[in-house]
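Problem: given the chain below (353 residues), write out its structure.
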Amino acid sequence: MGNTDQKLETLGLEIHKSYFSFKCPIGHGGFGKVWKVEQKKTKQCFAMKEMNKLRIIRKKSVSSILNERKLLSIIKHPFIVNMQYAFQDKENLYLVMDLMTGGDLRYQISKLRNFSEEQVKFFAACIISGLEYLHLLGIIHRDIKPENLVFDKKGYLRITDFGIARTIYIENSKETSGTPGYMAPEVMCSKNHGIAVDYYALGVIIYELMKGKRPYIGKNRKEIKMQMLSSQVQLKKSDLPSGWSIESADFVNKLLQRKPKNRLGFNGPQEVKNHVWLSDIHWANLYTKTLKSPFIPLEGDNFKPTNNFGFKDDLDAFIPLDSVDELFNGYFYNQNIDECKCDTTQTIKIRTR
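Solution.
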């Protein structure tokens, strides 16, 4: 261990895998598993993403992984799943995040199928609160979908997974990553895009919660794109579930506009919040989480009960570990460093640079 690491450890700022007890796997991504872990010293539970370095390199995703880590270091908000620590060992990168025990929205959709208008409106308000924060920071999430929205134990939704999030810049037509069913037309058509793509995805989610299906369905990206370009979805009163308001249809229709300039949210989050459908949302109380959610997840962990996520090992290629380490320089993050008021500023800057 070098002098910098020794000083950080003395301060209680150095973090390794051995500082945590691994409880159970709760999900997986493209590079490894997500674990429920407990910090041994504090007994606090977190979600830990364990990502294999060689797999990241094979999938040419080094820049995306580093970009996510960079964005998470500047994001801190009650409607975001926040990063607490980031560190690495010879084989893996580790992201330690807030643990959300309510499960993701996809999991709850599969269990409950139907939600009331009051519940869906509350979900939408939570998502909008998170998006407002991101957009004011100049960040587009670009992968808003039920799998990336998770519940805390009080029934509030938070946004997670910033793997393809980007800071906004004018020429981004080549950035076409995302999940086809939730991608805005301008991304599908490889055009420049902005914050309106996230509001389009919000419209898809609300439509799905209303109708039990997405507005445009296909076996692949090409089929979904053809449907999207051939007709503009337009909800009518007769399309709504029993008891739903016409204002909910108007809200979704305005979010699903194919042309970004015609879409609710193109001019910023305030015009979304000002829509009549959300007129009864008390935004200040929502932010402080003093409102009672109309949906409360079951107590305990709402994760699929399995120890095997079918992750296939594909690491046959030999890549020198020394060259791997160089690619991930500066990955370390400890949220306590920002709160540390001591005379070790230079040491910490060196470690996190």
